[in-house]
Write a structure and sequence with these properties.
With 290 residues, this protein is α/β, with parallel strands linked by helices. It is built from nine helices and eleven strands.
Length: 290
């Protein structure tokens, strides 16, 4: 599918420049870029803070009037942590287990490397210790860097390959904002989506009782599209994606493979590391709400 110049610009910057969105600093950089891009198309943008801490606050970005909208299309923007194996959608326990296992394994490896490095240094270091020598300052710098890195590893490393999960959904929403001018549709970019539903729960407190919420996840993966929830009353639904009707409060639109034995959805590691968007899925998602 042909991409516009604006979409190509978004794709490059959010795939490479603003791909990490986990720390307070990296999230603010991303939100500044996002709000700037949306402001070129819309003026009704709102950034709200919730779950405020001393050094941290979660933030949702709303485009349009979410309190009066008949339909809100949303996705999460924060970066998921590194983990082992596939991404099992809707299974928080499995995600937590795989993330914890990765943190534990990487921490053990880092400690072992530190011990080996220390033993090598002790084996080849000069017998006399010189406090103000260049070699001493180099060793101090190496150990300082090592412990800084070890601290980050113990907290979990950020996944750097975020095009599929979940930059692709962010790009799909930017495309919708640019093309869809319906006043009764609002958009929400949610924080804390990689770890839970805090951002979604905050949005649900803002919308009215009859509002339909559509939650996007990894829509640009090289996997089939699925819709679980309410149909947006589009005649092309059955042709574009696999549709499972449900009367749940939030409808989920996502790309994933289906495990028939467990009746579950997943993306394998190869899917998650894709460097190219599935533009057919992106176009299908955006056209679904027009």
């Amino acid at each position: 599918m042909e991409q516009t110049e604006a979409f190509k610009d978004w794709l490059f910057r959010y795939q490479y420049v603003y791909r990490l969105r986990r720390t307070e600093k990296s999230k603010k950089r991303f939100l500044t870029a996002l709000v700037t891009d949306i402001a070129k198309m819309r003026e009704d943008i709102q950034v709200i803070e919730y779950d405020q801490q001393k050094k941290y606050a979660s933030r949702n970005v709303y485009v349009g009037n979410v309190k009066q909208a008949d339909r809100v299309i949303c996705t999460f923007y924060d970066t998921p942590p590194e983990s082992f194996g596939s991404y099992q959608l809707f299974d928080r326990k499995d995600q937590a287990k795989k993330t914890t296992t990765f943190i534990l394994a990487s921490t053990i490896i880092a400690i072992l490397l530190g011990v080996i490095g220390t033993l090598i240094y002790m084996r080849f270091s000069p017998s006399s210790f010189q406090l103000y020598s260049l070699s001493t300052f180099v060793i101090i710098a190496i150990y300082a860097g090592y412990f800084i890195l070890l601290g980050k590893i113990t907290k979990g490393l950020s996944n750097r390959k975020t095009l599929v999960r979940n930059t692709s959904s962010i790009l799909a929403m930017l495309k919708m904002i640019a093309e869809n001018k319906q006043k009764k549709i609002a958009y929400a970019f949610l924080d804390e989506g990689s770890y839970g539903n805090k951002g979604l729960e905050e949005l649900q407190r803002q919308v009215n009782g009859h509002c339909e919420i559509y939650y996007l996840d990894s829509v640009g993966a090289s996997a089939p599209l699925h819709l679980v929830g309410k149909s947006p009353n589009n005649s092309e639904v059955a042709e574009k994606l696999d549709y499972l009707a449900s009367d749940q409060k939030v409808s989920y639109l996502f790309s994933a493979r289906k495990d028939q034995t467990k009746d579950a959805f997943y993306l394998n590691p190869t899917d998650l590391k894709e460097k190219q968007l599935n533009m057919e899925n992106i176009v299908a998602v955006t056209s679904l709400f027009q």
